[in-house]
Structures are given as structure tokens and as C-alpha cells.
Amino acid sequence: MIDPIAIAIGPLKIHWYGIIMGLAFFLGTYLARYNSKRSGIDPDHVLNMVVLIIPAAIVCARLYYVTFEWQQYKDNPLDIFAVWQGGLAIHGGLIGGVLAGSWYIRKHNLPFLRLADIFMPSVILGQAIGRWGNFINQEAHGGPVSAEFMEKFPAFIREQMFIGGQYYHPTFLYESIWNLFVFAVLMFMLYRFKKFDGQVLFSYMILYSLGRFYIEGMRTDSLLIADTLRVAQLVSLCLIAAGVILMLMFARKSKQTGHSQNSIE
């Protein structure tokens, strides 16, 4: 088992979860600034937005998780602040990020959909990296599997997924790999196949949610409504439907007007 604490200096403890999330934010910010330069958006706007988006995303991701797991925290409210233990819901983080980003965009009169297209590859890359924080904390895994099944995976994954005398599906890994695939698709679209603003955003909504819906059905720690309905699957279905509708609407509008938003060159 991997020690979740990477560095301990006296009372100061730095957790792997925090290091991994920090790496995800750093690489996502770097990529968004790079993409903004290629698309004609001042990269300083990206940095200014990130300063707002990251704390808003973390706070909302935690509040979203705690809301659906209130029974776990009602008797120990101080545990709400122990984010290094995990418990950051991606959909909550997206809500916080969108709210903070929208406020900045509106204040500076910037093109929302174009900036969203720039940010989405960073978001999905950050999600792919962030899932390894779940790996360290032995969370976001699936149901029990046999030792023979786990022979397909490297030893360090097998050992970390051996919890309480039982092997479990490494669903964190499945989602991380799916997210990297979506990242590659979004980058290709942004640079070679973008026809209109919003295309990358809508593709993210559809592709990420397809993978999340399927993988969520394998997990054992899903947030639930009425103890039966998986929240992430419901949200994923809504995002898929919204993404498809918006994609068709904007594609049709782009075709009718004869306007094509060139890919980044």
C-alpha cells in the first residue's frame, strides 16, 4: 500500500493527493495559456480566470460531495475541510469553475464559447491526472474482482487495489484512460476540425459523460439520491442530452450562415 503522505516534516504533512491535484492544475493552466495564444486570446485573461476558477472549483467540488454525504459529516463538521482525504466531486468542481469563469468573462466582455473551447482540453487532462489521487487514497474503485482478473494490471496497481483482503476494479484507471482519449479528441478538434465556437465544449459534455456514465455504474462509492439513483449517472445523461442538442443547433446555425470558425493554426 502506498503511503498517502508524500512528505512529513514535523507536524507538516504533504499528501500525494494534493501534489497530484496541484500537478493537474499546473498542466491544465499551462495548456490553456498555450491554446489561448494560438487562438488570439490574451493569455493573461486565462491566468486571471484560473486564479478565480481553481478555488471556486475546489470549494464547490467539496460542497457538492458533502451535500450528498452529509450523514458522514454532520457529527464531525471539521472533517469537511479535510480535502486531502479525497471527496472532491468533479461535477461540483465544474459548476464552480463555470460560475467563476462566467463572472470574469461577463465582466471583461469576452467570448464565452471560444474560451470554453480553449479550456476544455485542460479540464479533461486535469481530470485524467486527478484520478490518480483517487488511486493513492484507495477510493473511486469498483466492486470486487478476482486475483486472476487483476493479473492484467501492473503490480503497483494490483497492490493498491488490494483493500481489506479483497481486490477491486481499478475504475480510477478506466476513467483516467478514457479521459486521456477524450483529451486527444478535443485537441485534434481544436486544432484541425473546429467548425464553430462551442464545438469543443459540446464534445466534452458528450464524450466525458458517456465514459463517466458507464464507469460510474461499476463504482461502489457513488453519491446517491434516495439510496438508489446514482447522481453522477443522472448528471451525465443530462450533459449528454444537452451536448447533443447544442451541437446540432450550433452546427445547423453555422451551416445556414455559411460561417466557419477555423481551427487553431
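The record above closes out task 2.4. Task 2.5 opens with a second protein, given below.
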Amino acid sequence: MKTKLDDLPVAPDDGTSRGMPPRRLSVGEPAGFGLDELLRLSPWYAMLPAPVQGWIRERAREHRVAQGQLLARRGEIPTAWFGLAQGLLKTSVLAADGRSSTLGGILPGCWFGEGALLRGKPRHADYVALRDSRVVLLPLDDFARLLQEQPVFKDFVYSQINERLHYFMDHVGDVRLMRGPARVANALCGLAHVLNNPLGLVHLPIAQDELAAIAAVSRQRCNLALQHMQAQGWLHVGYGHLTLLALDPIAEMARSG
């Protein structure tokens, strides 16, 4: 029987994942999708009337981002809502002195960037491709029209914003105080969170150097932390991917700092 994220041992629900029931994928399923498949797997899309779904399909378009390139830059005025169809992204903030602070990773199936669209102000962070990626773009005007005319879409978007607020309050504030192993564990917990991994992937399409970039640690420190977690039976390290086996002890490792 294939393992699903919902089947893994996790901490009791603290209310941070309410409101957005995802469709869960099993370990062996692909981590990349075409436009039609991404829309079909998106809960907000499934709640809309068929004519509206067809209209969205006509308006959405795909955009490719090469490894190391920016999908969106801090300070630019947003023009579209994003959905990751394939690849891996990280959210980061670059200071004036060149220092970079990583806020988290984004896996296929995730829709993001709605906060800047609603504010109508420049983006507060960069979205960087850690590997060649495909992103679905829904233009700002169409996003705004859906908000105005489709209550279920509006409910989804505002629920997601609320979840993001609680997620960052619960997880991001303590990262600066964490040691290397705890940073790696925290990054894994972030990738398993419904906001960044709405499809519930257990087989994470991420290499060690990519995880190190999200955790803001060296590849060597990341490798040592992963080897410890694998020896404990919490995850399996593969070539270019990681398979989560138990989330409870990984979360406890993150909380230990």
C-alpha cells in the first residue's frame, strides 16, 4: 500500500491547516503537471462552475523559469497569481548589503503571490527557481474578477492568506535562533505544510543542495542532518529526492533548536 502524507505520524492539529482540504498524492505519483492537471488538482478550481472553469483555462498561461532565475522580484508591481506546475521555488529576501534570508520552499501544486495582488503594492520577496520550473500565471485582472464575482474563490484566497499569516508567525520567527540541524528539520516541516505542499507529496522532488538553500545552511551541514534523520528512520534520502516517513520526530528536532 502506498504511503500518503495524511498517514504519517504528525503532531496534534493546532489549527494551522484548516480550510484548504487538498487532494493527496501517494509516493509514486509524479511531482510535475500540465496546466490542465494542475487546475484539476486545485481545490479552488473544482469549486467553480464549469463555464468559469473554461474561462480560467483560456486565460491562464504557462511560463518557464530556468534554474537560478527569478520568477518575480522584490519591489516589482505584481501582475499575476502564480501556480507551480513543475519544479521547485524558494522565497527569499535580499538585503541591501547582499545578505539573503530564505523564507521557505514551494512545491508543485501550490498557488501563491496573492498577498501582493490584494495589496496592490510592490512584492516584499523574491521567488527564485532552484531547478528548471514551469509556472502557471493567472493575470491580475482575471484574479480580481474572480474575487469579485466568485464567493468560493474569494473564501479560498482569504483562507490561504490567513494560513500564511499563522504559518509565518509559528515557524519563521524562530529560524534565526536555530542551529543547522534544526534549520534543516524546520525546512522539511515547511515543505510538508499544506501551504507549500497542498497536494500532500511525501516523495519530495528536492535535492540536498536545494534543501540546503531553503534551510540557509551549507550542503555539508544539510547532509549530516539528513543522514541522522535517515539513520533514525524518519526519512529516506534518494538521488534528487527525499521521502518522508515520520513527521513527528522531524518537527520535534526543529522545535529543539
